[in-house]
Structure formats: C-alpha cells, structure tokens
Amino acid sequence: MDNKRILCIIGLVLTFFACLAIGVVLPIGEKKSDTLFASNTGGGGGGGGGGSLFGGEVTESGRPQTEDATRPDPENMESAEEAEEAESAEAATSAEEEHSAASETAATSETEKGADGIPNEPATSGAGVPAEPAAPEAVPAGDTMPVLDGKPLVGRANRRFGFACRAKATVASGDPLEYRLCEVGRSEAKYTSRNGGFALVVPSESGKYDLVVVNTRTGEQLRETIGGFDKVTKLSAGMLQEKLNKPMDDWFYIYFADDKDLKIDYEYIPEGFVPAQNIGALMSDRSANGWTIEVVGTPQYDEYNQVRRFKVRIKE
C-alpha cells in the first residue's frame, strides 16, 4: 500500500473512535434542559439536592418549584374563577355581618348610657335577673339616741360669778349633738352648746337644771336633771362687815352684784376723800389708809342672793 491509502485508513479509524467517544459521553435523544441539573432525591452523596442550588424548593419529583409551577392550568381556569367568585362573595357576606354586629353593639351602648353619658349598669340578683332598688336600711332607734358618757361636772368659775358645767354624750349613729340647759321641766333652752361645755351659768331657784342632749338629725332627746347650781350664801350685815375688813380672797366678788348694779352708801367718810363707787375701789382705799369699815343697817340682795346695796361708816 502506498502512503496515501494508509493515512486514509488511519483517519477513518480515528474518526470512528472519535464518534464512539462522543456517543458515549453525550446522551442521545432530546431531553428537557431543566433536567440537566436535577439531583438525586434518594439521599446520600455530599452534594445535597441540586434543586436547592437555584433557590427553589425540592418537590416530590426532585424538580425545583419555579414560576411555571405556580401558573394556573388552562384546564382548571374555570374552576379557579368560580372559587375566586365564591371567596369574594363569602368575604362580602362576612363584612356585612361584622358591620351589622358593630351597629347593634353601638346602639346597645347608647341605650345603656344615661343622659350624662355614663353607662347605666342595672343591678342584678345572683340569678342574673335585674334586682329591685333596695330600700334604705332603717337605723335602729337605739343607735340614734344620745347616751351620757359619765356624770356631768358642775363647779364655780374662779373669781367670777356663775358656774362652769361640762357634759359629754355619744350617739352610735355619729349624728351631731346639741347640748341645752333648761329650767327643770321646761323646754326653752337658757344655754346651748355644741361640745357640752357651759361657762358662767347663773344659779337657778332650785339649784338645778335639766340637761337636754338633742340628736339634731332625728330630734331624739336625752334629758337628765343635774344639780350644783345653787345661789351664793346671803351675807348678813355682820358677815359682810367681816369680809370687808379682810384681804380679798378668790371668791370675794361672787357675793356682790356687778359694779353697774351695785350701790354703796356712806354714813361717814373722812374729809378729803372721794366716796368709792365700786367694791374694788372701797377695798383699795381701806387697805391703803388702814381704815375699818362698819356696815350700817341691813344689806339688800338681788335674785341670786348677791349684795346689791349696803351702807358703811368709815373709821380711821
């Protein structure tokens, strides 16, 4: 053989092996391009799912879920439209029901509010039935009757004519009280007090007063007769003369009427002295000049046994 023929045979053999190699490496026949990178779903291997490499989720067939998978099927287009219309109708019905319920709630809320906008919450019994308004609970009579707390105290006011009195009462209901001093058996109050304290109470004919404690809310009254309001001792001429010639004590003035009601007469007074017109001035002159006072005649008294007029003779 010549060289030309040998080269042709070698070329044919190389071509045959080249075609064979291409046939082995490349699959024969048409395949969809999206299967080229499909991975095995049977697990194993280090590569994992090839579909996840492109961001799609692996389906049961191993294909990534792409946009093509979400497109509606032309054969199911009619059923899909019907389903969408049904959903729209259902949504409209639901919105209408919600609007109706909201209207009913607003109407109920308005009817439950009073004229001032404050909700009226009707009282109900334990069974849920509206209860009738409860009548005001009557307070027992014993709870509104005043009660004295101890015995009232009566004593003379020091250096002044009259008596001081202190009483204390309580009432269970806590109502305000008013204290009154009345003549025994009388209803007219001669003295009133809000706290039970009385000052400069004049003596009474009987030496007693009725203490009346009044519940000002209910009008209920507690009455009790108390003594100690006696008149002063009526000083005789001798007793008065003795008192005028001694230093004054704390109770000196209670035996004499007030200066405006007291009258002092003089049978004799040393020359150059102006007659004193009140008991205080007379006592000052006697003490300063060393006089002795003699009572002339019988003194006169007021309704409380106080001396309201007397006559004296001054001795140096």
Describe the structure.
With 316 residues, the protein is an alpha+beta fold. Helix content is 27%, strand content 22%. The protein contains 6 helices and 12 strands. A 4-stranded antiparallel beta sheet has the order 6-5-8-9, with no helix packed on it. A 3-stranded antiparallel beta sheet has the order 2-3-7, with no helix packed on it. A hairpin with a 6-residue loop joins strand 5 (177-182) and strand 6 (189-193). The relative contact order is 0.07. Mean pLDDT is 75; it is low at 28-80 and 106-129.
Q: How many individual helices?
A: 6
Output the helix-strand order. Answer: HHHHEEEEEEEEEHEHEE
What separation lies between the terminal Cα atoms?
A: 202 Å
Q: Which structural category do the helix and sheet elements fall into? A: alpha+beta
- How many distinct beta strands? 12
Q: Within the largest sheet, what's the order of strands?
A: 6-5-8-9
Radius of gyration: 63 Å
The oligomeric state of the chains shown is single chain
What's the mean pLDDT score? 75
Residues in helix, %: 25-40%
- Unreliable segments of 5+ consecutive residues: 28-80, 106-129
Global shape: rod-shaped
Strand content: 15-25%
Largest sheet: 4 strands, antiparallel
